[in-house]
Amino acid sequence: MSTIERAIETLSTQPGGPAVPAQELPQPRGVEVAPEKPVVEVQPNRPGDNESSQPRIDLDFARLRQAGFVTPDGERTQVAEEFRHIKRPLLLNAFGRGALQTANRNLVMVSSARPGEGKTYTTINLALSIALERDLTVLLVDADVAKPSIARVLNFPGTAGLVDYLADHNVPLSKLILQTSVPKLRILPSGRRHAHSTELLASESMLRLVTELAQRYPDRIVLFDSPPLLATSEAAVLAGLMGQVVMVVEAGGTKREELSEALSLLNPKQYVALTLNKSAKPFGADYYYASYQAYGE
Predict the structure, then answer these.
(1) Element (H, E) at 91
(2) Is residue 38 part of a domain?
(3) pLDDT tens digit string along 185-237?
(4) In a domain? residue 43
(5) Which of 63, 125, 213, 239 is most solvent-facing, going by the fewest CB within 10 Å?
């Protein structure tokens, strides 16, 4: 039995956690999510512009902490500790100190089989946790172009982003990447919706972009929040450009058949890590299924 078959078999025996409504991010009482706002126009770049001139957003740490996110000013919580364990193999692989030796190892896509399994929650927490590393920076890319969530969850106005860059090269990338109040975290929003988003993600422009993002800064992890694999065609296209893929599996929610079908859409040689979300058991329990397995081993 292969590693992934054992993982799926383990999944099928997991007792489910508390019922959680089918939504991308469970919202604790009293926490509101900002409604979607119109895309903000980005002015053309000027000679001499650099990263210091990037727009900046201030994250509401109190609100994020209440919603269950890792924050720079937060205490040592169970969630923070779990994401420390989740990120470590990714970082080892990304910088050549792990078993993975493929190209673009520092490009990491987070996806799921179906909507509502917690991929955006996982992506943002991974980004925040990695941003706490002493010697690394992280770029968070909202590549869920059909249903973007990063701006909504982090509560900042919609701006031009990834799709705008792919559709119009007159929009400079340096003007689309946002600084944040976390010094080592940058965000590239999804931008406007486009009827040919799949083709844009499969274009030579996207290939050049991810290559540039992977190589521009030797200390940077680039995290992509992608669409669910079974919901759109964009996720499988995007996965082909990644060095690592994280699949979020919902305890008591993701069906064994759905996970198998989603993984079948990926290259069999693709490195895939599985993490269990919404588990009722604490970290370290025998069946806690957040350790990483490589699809195709």
Answers:
(1) helix 78-94
(2) no
(3) 999 999 988 888 888 988 899 999 999 999 888 899 999 999 999 998 889 99
(4) no
(5) 63
Looking up tokens 């973007």 gives 148
Question: Is 40 within a domain?
Answer: no
Q: Which of 204, 186, 192 is nearest to 162 (CA)?
A: 192
d(CA 85, CA 217): 24
Range of the domain at 70: 57-277
Question: What's the pLDDT at 52?
Answer: 53
What pLDDT is stored for residue 58 in this prediction?
Answer: 94
Q: Which helix (H) or strand (E) holds 224?
A: strand 220-225
Residue numbers in the chain where pLDDT is lower than 50: 1-8, 10-49, 285-297
Give the separation between CA 156 and CA 160, rounded to whole angstroms: 12
210 within 8 A of 238, measured Cβ to Cβ: no
CATH number where 114 lies = 3.40.50.300
- Distance of alpha carbon 117 from alpha carbon 16, whole angstroms: 13
| Residue 49 is assigned to a structural domain of this protein | no
**Which among 59, 42, 25 is positioned nearest to 156, based on CA atoms?**
59
Q: What is the pTM of this model?
A: 0.79
Q: Total structural domains in the chain?
A: 1
Strand order in the sheet with 137-142: 56-57, 178-180, 185-188, 137-142, 220-225, 107-112, 244-250, 272-277
Q: What secondary structure, in 3-state letters, does 119-179 show? A: HHHHHHHHHHHHCCCCCCEEEEEECCCCCCCHHHHHCCCCECCHHHHHHCCCCCHHHCCEE
* Structure-token match 């010697």, residue found: 135
